[in-house]
Specification:
Rossmann fold; binds adenosine-5'-diphosphate; binds guanosine-5'-monophosphate
C-alpha cells in the first residue's frame, strides 16, 4: 500500500497549481481524478482533470458505495473521490495525490490516518485569495459569490491539518511543497 498526499485549501488558494507542479516533478505520484457534477471548464479534459457526470449518475454511484468520500461542495455541485482511483494508482505502484476540499481532506485522513499527509494551502490574505479567484476568470459572478462565502469559512480550518503551506511567492511555495512531499515519502 502506498501513501496519500492530500492538498486542501479554499478555492483560489493555489491547490491546482501546486498539485500540477508536484505531478510533473515526481514520477512516483498519481493524481486521484475526482468525480464531479459541476460544468467542465474550457481547458479541462474529461477523465484527466475530473470525471464529469450528471447528478443522477453521481447519486447512483454514491448508493453503490463507489466513493471513499464525497461532498456537496456547492449547492447541487457534488465532488467525490472514487475508491477505484485509489486502487488504480496503488496498482501502478505510485503514491496518491488529492485535490479536495477541507472536509474531503479530513475524511481521507480519517480513513488512512498513518499513511496520509494532509497539507493546507494558505493564501497570504483573504483579499489576495479573492483577487486570484477573480483573475482566473473561470467563474461567473454567482459562482464567485458562492466561492468567496465558502472560502471565508474554510480559512478557519488550517489547524486541523498536518502542515500549512503559505502560498505567497509561488516559487517558494512550490519548493516547500516538494520538500514536504519528499520528507513524508522518505519516512517509514
Ligand atoms: P485552486 O485550485 O486552489 O482553486 P488555482 O491553482 O486555480 O487555485 O489558483 C488560483 C489562481 O491563482 C490561478 O489563476 C493561479 O494561476 C493563481 N496563483 C496560484 N498561486 C499563485 C501565487 N503564489 N501568486 C499569484 N497567483 C497565483
Ligand atoms: P473546483 O470546482 O474549483 O475544481 O473545485 C471546488 C472544490 O472542490 C475545491 O475545493 C476542490 O478541492 C474540491 N474537490 C475537488 N474534488 C473533490 C473530491 O473528490 N472530494 C472533495 N471532498 N472535494 C473535492
Amino acid at each position: 500500500m502506498g501513501k496519500l498526499i492530500v492538498i486542501t485549501a479554499p478555492s483560489g488558494a493555489g491547490k491546482t497549481t501546486i498539485v500540477r507542479h508536484l505531478i510533473k516533478t515526481f514520477y512516483f505520484l498519481g493524481f486521484s481524478i475526482s468525480a464531479t457534477t459541476r460544468e467542465k471548464r474550457k481547458h479541462e479534459v474529461d477523465g484527466k482533470d475530473y470525471h464529469f457526470m450528471t447528478v443522477e449518475d453521481f447519486k447512483k454511484m454514491r448508493r453503490r458505495r463507489k466513493f471513499l468520500e464525497w461532498e456537496e461542495v456547492y449547492e447541487n455541485q457534488f465532488y467525490g473521490t472514487l475508491r477505484s482511483e485509489v486502487e488504480r494508482i496503488w496498482k501502478e505502484g505510485k503514491h496518491i495525490i488529492f485535490d479536495v476540499d477541507v472536509k474531503g481532506a479530513k475524511d481521507i485522513k480519517k480513513a488512512y490516518p498513518n499513511e496520509t499527509l494532509a497539507i493546507f494551502v494558505k493564501p497570504p490574505s483573504v483579499e489576495e485569495l479573492f483577487a486570484r479567484l477573480r483573475n482566473r476568470k473561470t467563474e461567473d459572478e454567482a459562482s464567485l459569490k458562492k466561492r468567496f462565502a465558502r472560502s471565508k469559512r474554510e480559512l478557519k480550518y488550517e489547524k486541523k491539518f498536518d502542515k500549512v503551506l503559505v502560498n505567497d511567492d509561488l516559487k517558494i511555495a512550490l519548493k516547500e511543497a516538494e520538500e514536504m512531499v519528499i520528507n513524508f515519502i522518505k519516512e517509514k
